[in-house]
Design goal:
The protein is 17% helix and 34% strand. The chain has 510 residues and is α+β, with helices and mostly antiparallel strands.
Length: 510
């Protein structure tokens, strides 16, 4: 007679059975068909899975005459256009007539000339749909000179998050493709376009053996962007550069919307921040290309028919026009604009960081010091400030040595003054700053100060200051009421000239 099972024992057995059922259900949910880890589960349970690199295609890239990629973006076909002993040349028919990035083409051809799998995923896979290989995301075909062809089909992303499942030719196995092979599979033909919007300028040695390190920019004109009026600069003439009546920090001069010296804006490295406006004309690379051979309708759609900003310039005698259209972003999310060059029938995207012309601050472009005549070139300065008049004159100790300020003897109203103190006074005259462009009524203000430089070799330059009653004044150069500065300059001008008269040293602070 069998022993009767206790109630406690029976309950334990029932509980254990129930627990096993729950575990089984959990496993089905986690690894059953349709779960996101189904392919991963299949990999781990297959006895054929390998973690060893598998060589699938071994060949020489120089023997590949054509490579094509099919993808959701339409794909592309790269053809070898010429084979030489030292190099290979590739091209894409859709880009005929445009500069192409052959090095990028060569990279992908080299990548698929030799193909290795990082591992075998499943041998003789009966269900390739779970790997996305029944309807591949990408198909890569290579055709060789001898007629050999290979086809690589690429499916879903690996469960590791990088790389993808793939199959090759008639091989029934599923393999893992490394992430480096994926880099150019989403490309279109436009990704292989050369993105230089102008031919990059390179230094050279001229016929006289001189190194030419920069192009000749005959002019640069910018319209639109942050500018209220067109802005134009031109190089200094040889006469201007050689002139001893003015000292320039830049070799360019502003001619629109007013005439002034271009500011040499020194940065922390001692360079000129304003040089970017001409330096960037030597080469400019787009972030990407959008459209080839645009129609007028295309240009209008991208804001290029009536541009946000237009950059016109002449480089080494050749005219160029760049148009900046609607705002956008590049592939990395950086601020950018659509862009069109008269040199290329292409609409590009160019990062704003490469377009300094669209955000010009006019007050950063001109030198605040309008007149900088050398001290020994000035024979006389006539000054009127707050209804008091003064005359400063200088004699030369030696008429044959007129390029050294120690050679001058200064006088104020006929009385000799200390040379060091005169130098300070002279520096203060030069420091009359054009702080902003004056846009108000040119007839406004009351004349409160004026001084005129008279040069030894003839000619003169005059400065007039008009009080506007708001702690500022108009700074007029040779009758041009273009600038505005602080009235405190005039107040200290009056103080300094009295200091010089009383045998004291003027101050440059105001």
């Amino acid at each position: 007679m069998a022993a009767k099972m206790s109630k406690k024992t029976r309950n334990l057995i029932i509980g254990a059975a129930f627990l096993l059922i729950l575990i089984a259900l959990l496993l089905v949910l986690l690894f059953g068909p349709g779960s996101k880890d189904a392919a991963s589960s299949e990999e781990s349970s297959s006895s054929e899975v390998s973690t060893t690199t598998v060589e699938l295609i071994v060949s020489d890239s120089e023997h590949i005459k054509e490579l094509s990629v099919e993808n959701a973006n339409g794909g592309y076909t790269i053809k070898r256009t010429k084979a030489g002993e030292d190099d290979l040349q590739y091209g894409i028919d859709a880009l005929d007539g445009f500069d192409q990035n052959e090095s990028e083409m060569e990279e992908i051809v080299n990548q698929f000339a030799n193909l290795s799998a990082t591992r075998l995923v499943e041998a003789n896979a009966p269900d390739i749909a779970k790997y996305g290989l029944d309807d591949p995301l990408y198909i890569i075909r290579t055709i060789y000179d001898d007629g050999t062809e290979h086809e690589i089909r690429v499916g879903n992303t690996l469960t590791t998050g990088s790389g993808a499942y793939m199959m090759v030719d008639d091989d029934a196995n599923v393999y893992a493709m490394g992430s480096t092979k994926m880099e150019r599979l989403d490309y279109t033909s436009l990704n292989y376009l050369d993105l230089n919007v102008i031919d990059p300028w390179e230094s050279y040695t001229d016929n006289d053996g001189n190194e030419v390190s920069a192009p000749t920019i005959d002019y640069l004109e910018v319209e639109g962007g942050t500018l209220e009026e067109p802005f134009r600069i031109e190089p200094m003439s040889e006469e201007q550069l050689a002139s001893k009546s003015t000292s320039y920090g830049s070799t360019y001069r502003i001619v629109k919307p007013f005439e002034a010296d271009m500011q040499y804006k020194t940065n922390t490295d001692g360079g000129d921040d304003n040089a970017v406006y001409t330096n960037n004309l030597q080469s400019l690379e787009a972030a990407s290309a959008v459209l080839l051979n645009p129609t007028d309708e295309d240009l209008a759609a991208y804001g290029l028919e009536e541009p946000y900003c237009t950059i016109s310039f002449s480089r080494d005698g050749t005219e160029h026009i760049w148009k900046v259209g609607n705002a956008t972003t590049d592939a990395d999310g950086n601020a950018a604009h659509y862009f069109y060059s008269s040199d290329r029938e292409v609409i590009y995207i160019v990062d704003d960081s490469n377009l300094p012309w669209i955000s010009i601050d006019i007050d950063d472009m001109y030198s605040s010091l309008m007149l900088l005549p050398y001290i020994d070139d000035v024979e006389k300065i006539e000054l009127t400030v707050y209804d008091k008049s003064y005359v400063l004159t200088t004699d030369l100790k030696d008429e044959d040595e007129d390029d050294d300020d120690s050679n001058i003897v200064p006088y104020l109203d006929g009385e000799q003054v200390d040379l060091t103190a005169y130098r300070k006074m002279y520096q203060y005259f030069l420091a009359a700053p054009a702080e902003t462009v004056y846009k108000g009524d040119k007839d406004a203000g009351t004349l409160v100060a004026s001084f005129t430089y008279y040069y030894r070799d003839g000619g003169s330059d005059s400065v007039d200051l008009y009080d506007l009653g708001d702690r500022t004044c108009i700074l007029s150069i040779n009758g041009n009421k273009q600038w505005q500065t602080r009235i405190s300059y005039v107040q200290h001008l009056a103080t300094n000239i009295e200091k010089l008269k009383n045998g004291e040293t003027p101050s440059l602070d105001y």
